[in-house]
Amino acid sequence: MMHRRTALKTLASAAAATAIPGFAFAQNKKITMKLGISLAQSHPTVVGLQAACAEILRESNGQLAIDVFPNSQLGSDTDMISQVRSGAIEMMSTASGVFATLVPSAAVSVLPFVFPDLETAFRAMDGELGRHIREGFTKVSLVPLGKAWDHGFRQVTMSTKPVNSVQDLQGVKLRVPATPVLQQTFKALGASPTTIGIGEAYTALQTKVVDGQENGLAIIDAQRFYEVQKYCSLTSHAWECFWIAANPQAWNKVPENLRQIAVRAFELQAVKTRTVMATLNTSLQDSLTKRGLTFNNVDPKPFRQALQQAGAYKEWKGKFGDETWTLLEKYSGKLV
Question: Which pTM value belongs to this model?
Answer without folding.
Answer: 0.83
